[in-house]
Every structure is written in structure tokens, then in C-alpha cells.
Design a protein that fits this description.
75 residues; 3-stranded antiparallel β-sheet; binds zinc ion; 1 helix; 3 strands
């Protein structure tokens, strides 16, 4: 049993590292504000390290107030 638990933990750590590497910046289509997952949006209660996908839908652009729908992936 303990063997199974250990390997599960390893898999979880791997996927966290994967997320940190692949987190993308998003740019507001309206005002050009860039959401950087490494920085988050502390003023709106979004902790640093939060991927854009995990921001609550109620979040809006801190500069112009537009919703998440109007953000595009920054390549
Ligand atoms: Zn904006």
C-alpha cells in the first residue's frame, strides 16, 4: 500500500512542475494588460503562481475591467 502512495505523490509533483513550466501569459485584448502567472494579481486576490485557467470567472482585467473571455494567450 505504501508503495502505491509514494508513486502517486511522485506523479503529482511531476505534474506541478509541468504546470510551472508551461504556464502562459495572457494579454487583455482591450487595453493590453498582461497577466503573468508568476506574478498573479495580488490586488484582486490572485496569488502568484496561479495559472490563468484557474482564475475565477468573476475576475476581470485590473486596468479596464473586461472579463476573462477577452484575454488571449501570449505566444
Ligand atoms: Zn484590460
Amino acid at each position: 500500500m505504501s508503495r502505491v502512495t509514494k508513486s502517486r505523490v511522485k506523479i503529482q509533483i511531476k505534474s506541478i512542475n509541468f504546470n510551472l513550466r508551461t504556464m502562459k501569459k495572457y494579454v487583455c485584448d482591450v487595453c493590453g494588460y498582461v497577466y503573468d502567472p508568476a506574478v498573479g494579481d495580488p490586488d484582486s486576490g490572485i496569488a502568484p503562481g496561479t495559472p490563468f485557467e484557474e482564475i475565477p470567472d468573476s475576475w476581470s482585467c485590473p486596468l479596464c475591467g473586461i472579463g476573462k473571455d477577452s484575454f488571449s494567450v501570449m505566444e
